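Record type: monomer structure entry
Structure origin: computed from sequence
Chain ID: A
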Amino acid sequence: MFRIFSRLMIVVSVIACCAGAASGAGSAIDKGSVIVGGGAAYCSLSGDLYEDGGGDGVTILLFAPECGAFVTSHLALSGQLIIGQLKRGDDKLYAIGVGPRLRYYFGQTSASGSLKGTTYPYLTGAFTWGQYNDPGKKKHTATALSFGGGITHMVANSVGLFAEVNYRADKFKQADTDSESGTSINLMAGFTLFLWE
């Protein structure tokens, strides 16, 4: 638990630094713009990692708040917190993880007027390290690597709604067994607040 707490404190420190960095960006996706937001995803998984002997697959509900900044025009680096629930049959697992996320946005970096109605396509990649507990309350480690793409549609000058599809590779490791891995394709939706004005 201490490892998760220390990693969470690093993410909070990055968020605090990012919040102080917002200044004079020319648009929502220009250098200096800060992003704060989050999304949610629901998916159903199968395969050796996810199915039990009775054929029950896993359903996953994820929440992913994040905060970051544009380190150059178009390219945003953020810290992401993942909170999830995994369900197989009557068993439930709870997971928490942290890690970095990159997004590369396409579009104009100078804004001559309101950004409302502008759509920004983007590519993204993320790595997450975390812990999960089994039904016996034992804690185990997990990692996830994801790649994908999406669109952010600006509903106000500084607020965007996004939809994203990503491919994720998961690896779970219990203390006394070999690791298991699996992959999934996920749809995530949420909002992003761009602090640039």
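Annotation 1: The two ends are 39 Å apart (CA to CA).
Annotation 2: The beta strands are 34-45, 58-72, 75-88, 91-105, 119-133, 139-154, 159-173, 180-195.
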